[in-house]
Amino acid sequence: MKTTFTSRTAITVIVLVSAGILFFLFWLIYLREPATSENSLDLTFLPAVNAVLNSLSAVCLFLGYLAIRKSMRERHIKMMLSALFFSLLFLISYLTYHAFSGDTLFQGDGWIRSLYFFILISHILLSVIVLPMVLTTVYFAASGDFTRHPKIARITLPLWLYVSVTGVLVYLMLYHL
């Protein structure tokens, strides 16, 4: 008996994996008490690493977009896979930091506080949407479905770029304002 892995099955798996990751993140950041120990690792450098990884992802996304606009398919693939790799490293680093350090509270006042929360909330909401979109876009490309890949990529790219760039802005506002 031959098993067929259809697009519908792939999308279902992508949605379930994305939901699992998002529920885990929600639990990790908002419901679980952070690990506290006198001997715990000093991970205060990780937010800066996360910002660099988000920046690298954004640059690769932009360069990948430019490459495909110039019909440079191989460069496009390399740049998009690099963006995916930097985003994966970001996710690992982000999970590590929040597992040991918990959440960081914004200390700013006035209009900057309102701006910070607008950026943060839009960043969080769009990151929830963009995760399964990125995985679906990559799936369509990897499976050779070049009818659906560009259609979803046109939506995924600006959202993924926004999430990457606002991730850097959140870092800058949290640690450098």
Describe the structure.
The structure is a single chain. With 177 residues, the chain is mainly α. It has a single domain, classed as Four Helix Bundle (Hemerythrin (Met), subunit A). It is 79% helix and 0% strand. The termini are far apart.
Tell me briefly what this model is.
This protein is mainly α and 177 residues long. Helices cover 79% and strands 0% of the residues. 19% of the residues are buried.
Distance between the termini: 61 Å
By CATH's scheme, which homologous superfamily applies?
A: Cytochrome c oxidase, subunit III, four-helix bundle
Could you describe the largest sheet, including whether it forms a barrel? Answer: none
Order of helices and strands: HHHHH
* SS-based class: mainly alpha
CATH topology grouping: Four Helix Bundle (Hemerythrin (Met), subunit A)
Question: How would you describe this structure in keywords?
Answer:
177 residues; mainly alpha; Four Helix Bundle (Hemerythrin (Met), subunit A); 5 helices; globular
